[in-house]
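User: My instructor asked us to take a sequence, write out its structure as tokens, and then describe one feature of it. I'm not sure where to start. Here is the sequence I was given:
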Amino acid sequence: MDATSPDDDAADTLAWVLPGRRTAPAEALKRIQLLCGAWPDLHAAMLVVLATHQELPRDMLAAAIKQFRADLDAYTREDVVSLLTAIWNGGKSGFDAVLRTRANSPKKGGGLSWVKE
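Assistant: Let's start with the prediction itself. The structure tokens for your sequence are:
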């Protein structure tokens, strides 16, 4: 017989989002892919990824999100970092404002050679 309670099972299932929990990059990438695919709305997808992966630097989150969201193909990694910052600081209205300004700005070259943009 299993002596674990339903509360213990729920805690184990959600352990990856608890404060101080570090996970392997491959594990985080799989979760980010699932989250990006689960929310068709760009703002919602980015918000849930940011909320559940606060331990990761935003530039890493931006690179990961860009891999799984075709609607971000026209944006640089720096643009996506700005969107994540806008979500965190300005909510939906801040996100929409940055999205509007970044869509019309010229794109810069360069970046990290190991990051797919």
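For the description part of your assignment, you could build on this observation: The chain is about 60% helix and 0% strand. Try explaining in your own words what that tells you about the chain.
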